[in-house]
Specification:
- This protein is an alpha/beta fold and 283 residues long.
- Helix content is 39%, strand content 20%.
- The chain has a 6-stranded parallel sheet, with helices on both faces. A 3-stranded antiparallel sheet has the order 7-8-9.
- Helix 8 links the parallel strand 5 and strand 6.
- The model has no long low-confidence stretch (mean pLDDT 95).
- It binds pantoate.
- Pantoate binds at residues 28-30, 58, 61, 128, 131-132, 150, 153.
């Protein structure tokens, strides 16, 4: 695996693959790699000859400096993990490389960035879109891979690529789950044994909602189904259920008529877990 720190280095490494007629898949990360990231790498490797991974803890997507300071970082461990995957190039830039002196250009999906999770984390999706646009411009991949778990992020990036006519394809990769259905997350290890057992109520709620959605219920009934399943678990504190149009993330009323995203966040003993699923009527 080739480690690159500058724009010139990563461009030269990608060009060498391109000149040999290879296609390029990109996975952007902030390090602290886990199985979810490695699944993205494997998807990229399945579709492309050359896989580029980026590790960059992006300061502009953190609201509070304290969050950024506490973000785990272990490049040596991450690089070792990437060596055992089919990753060809790792781009590990310093902040000044991505945000050059005097920098003043931002990218923002004006509506989508400022709703749902964007309301509780102002500026977060602007930071994500800005860094991802820069990484796309630097690497120039044919495709990039993002987890469906961060559903709003995925839709923001798809919208940005479409609106700015960026010449690459965005793939959403299904969430990797534990055997009992709990979405994998680096936060799961912080759950007590009791809360870990209780946390499967989220995927149970999504399973039930998926079944119900097939029958074209009202959005209120769908919301009630999810709420009921989670609230019947005493260890769960429901923080939010958002039921929105799957692509535009627009709020829905009336009946379920097409692809509908259900986004859940719930707290278990102080650990906030999120999950989502796209459901819809049987066609
Ligand atoms: O999902 C992440 O890890 C980050 O938001 C991303 C896409 C790498 C941008 O910094």
């Amino acid at each position: 695996v080739k480690i690159c720190k500058t724009v010139a280095e990563v461009r030269a490494a990608v060009t060498a693959f391109r000149e040999a007629g290879k296609t390029v898949g990109l996975v952007t990360t902030m390090g602290a790699l886990h199985e979810g990231h490695l699944t993205l790498m494997r998807n990229a490797a399945r579709d492309h000859d050359c896989v580029v991974a980026t590790i960059f803890v992006n300061p502009t997507q953190f609201g509070q400096k304290a969050d950024l300071a506490h973000y785990p970082s272990d490049d040596a461990r991450d690089i070792e993990l990437l060596k055992s995957e089919s990753v060809d190039i790792v781009f590990l830039p310093e902040v000044e490389v991505i945000y050059p002196e005097g920098d003043e250009t931002i990218v923002e999906t004006t509506r989508m960035a400022n709703m749902l999770h964007g309301l509780v984390r102002p500026g977060h999706f602007r930071g994500v879109a800005t860094v991802v646009a820069r990484l796309f411009n630097i690497v120039g991949p044919d495709a990039a891979y993002f987890g469906e778990k961060d559903y709003q992020q995925l839709q923001v990036i798809k919208r940005m690529v479409h609106d700015l006519h960026m010449p690459l394809k965005i793939h959403g990769v299904p969430t990797v789950r534990e055997a009992d259905g709990l979405a994998m997350s680096s936060r799961n290890v912080r759950l007590s044994a009791e809360d870990r057992a209780a946390a499967i109520c989220i995927s149970k709620a999504l399973d039930a909602a998926e079944q119900l959605a097939k029958t074209r219920p009202s959005i209120m009934a769908l919301d009630g189904e999810v709420r009921g399943t989670i609230n019947s678990e005493p260890r769960a504190t429901l923080r939010a259920i958002d039921i929105v149009e799957a692509e535009s993330l627009k709020p829905l009323t009336g009946k379920v008529t097409g692809p509908t995203a259900i986004m859940i966040s719930a707290d278990f003993g102080g650990v906030l877990l999120i999950d989502q699923r796209v459901v819809g009527p049987e066609t």
